[in-house]
Design goal:
2 copies of one chain form a homodimer. Helices cover 67% and strands 0% of the residues of chain A. Chain A is mainly α and 194 residues long. The first copy, chain A, binds a DNA duplex (18 and 18 nucleotides) through helix 1 and helix 3.
Chain lengths: 194, 194
DNA sequence: GTCTATATAAAGATAGAC
DNA sequence: GTCTATCTTTATATAGAC
C-alpha cells in the first residue's frame, strides 16, 4: 500500500468546500447583496483573493454555493397523506437545507435567486397539481405551495414570535386540515377520503 | 381675495411627494439594496443631490417612503367571516399598497424592513388571535397570517405562473375553507384526530 | 432652492510578488 | 498556490457655485 498524503488537489477541494459552506451560511443569513466576498473569506479563514481565484465572481460563487438539487419526479406509489406528498416534493415545515434558505433569503431582491426560486416553485406546483384530483388542481397546488412558503418564511426567515418556539410537528398538525381543504379533500367525514 | 400662487413651500411639498412616490415604487420593485438614490431621482425627474438635501440619507428616505400606517384596533361588531376579519387587519389577497410591497420586498435582506414587517405581522397575529376562539388561538392566527403572506409573496412578488393570472376573488374563494379550518371554524373533524 | 463637482467609502476584481 | 497591494467601479454623501 502506498501512503496517501493529502495531495494538492485534495486540499484544494477541502478549501473549496469550506468556502462554499461559509458562502451558503452567509447568503442564507444576509442575502446576496449584503454578503461580501470579504465576509465569506473571513468565515472560511482564507484570503479574499483566493475566493475570487476559485470562483471567478460573486455571482458564480452564489450559483455554486446554493444550487439546489432539482426535485426527483414523484415516483412510485400513492401518497398516504397530503403531508407525505408535500414532503416528497421537498416541502416540509422542519429544518430547511441551508442552500434553500439562501435562495429564499435572496429571492425577493436578487434576480437570479428569484428565477431559481420561481423555477423550483413552479415545478413543485406542477408535480403537486398532477397528484391531486380536482378541476382547479393547479391553482390549489399553487396555494398549498404558497402556504408552505409563507409559513417557512414567517418562521425561519422572519422569526415571527408566535411561530419561533413552536415545533414543526405542532405546526404540521394545526396546518393539516387546512392543507386537506386546499387539496380538495374538503368535506368532513368520509372514512376514506384519500 | 388674494390670488394664490404656488408658494415655495407648496412646490417643495409637491417635489417631495414626487420623490417619495418614485422611491416607493423603486423600493417595491427592486428592494432596498438595489435601489439607488440616482434611480429614484431619475424617476422623480430631480437631481440626485436634491433627494439627499430633502431626506438626508437613503435610510431616511426609505423610512419616510414606506412607513406603514399601523393597524387601527379591531373595532366594533363581530366579523361576519374570516375574510372580513382578515380584511380589517389589512390582510387581503387583492392589490397591496405600494408601501407595504416595498417593505415586503426588502424584509428578507434589509434589517430595518425586517423589523418593521415583524412588528406589523406580530400585531396582526395578536389582533387576529384575540378575535378567534381556540386554545391555540395565537398559533392559528400566526398560521393564517403566514398563509396570507405566502400567497401575497408568491403572487405579487414572485409572479408564480399559476397565480399570476388568477383573480383575487377566485383565490379568496379557494382559500376560504382552508382559512376557516385554520380559524377553527367548521373544521372537518376526523375521528382519530391525528 | 437647485445643480455641478467632488469627496469618501465600500466592494468587486486583477496583477504580480513570494 | 497563496497573499499583498492595487485598480476600478459604484454609490452615498457633501460643498459650493449659480
Amino acid at each position: 500500500m502506498e501512503k496517501t498524503p493529502t495531495s494538492r488537489v485534495v486540499r484544494r477541494r477541502r478549501t473549496e468546500e469550506r468556502i462554499l459552506a461559509a458562502a451558503r451560511e452567509a447568503f442564507a443569513e444576509r442575502g446576496f447583496e449584503r454578503t461580501t466576498i470579504r465576509i465569506v473569506a473571513a468565515a472560511a479563514e482564507v484570503d479574499p483573493a483566493l475566493v475570487m481565484q476559485y470562483f471567478g465572481s460573486k455571482r458564480e460563487l452564489f450559483e455554486r454555493a446554493v444550487q439546489m438539487p432539482s426535485i426527483p419526479p414523484l415516483g412510485g406509489g400513492l401518497a398516504e397523506s397530503i403531508e407525505e406528498l408535500l414532503a416528497r416534493i421537498g416541502m416540509k415545515i422542519g429544518p430547511i437545507p441551508q442552500a434553500s434558505l439562501a435562495v429564499m433569503r435572496s429571492m425577493l431582491t436578487h434576480p437570479e435567486a428569484a428565477q431559481g426560486a420561481r423555477a423550483k416553485l413552479d415545478d413543485q406546483v406542477a408535480q403537486l397539481g398532477a397528484a391531486i384530483e380536482d378541476d382547479d388542481a393547479e391553482l390549489r397546488a399553487a396555494l398549498m405551495v404558497a402556504t408552505m412558503l409563507g409559513v417557512t418564511i414567517a418562521r425561519q426567515l422572519l422569526d415571527l414570535t408566535a411561530l419561533r418556539e413552536v415545533s414543526a410537528e405542532r405546526i404540521a398538525e394545526i396546518l393539516r386540515p387546512s392543507m386537506n381543504a386546499l387539496a380538495g379533500v374538503d368535506v368532513p367525514v368520509r372514512d376514506d377520503a384519500g
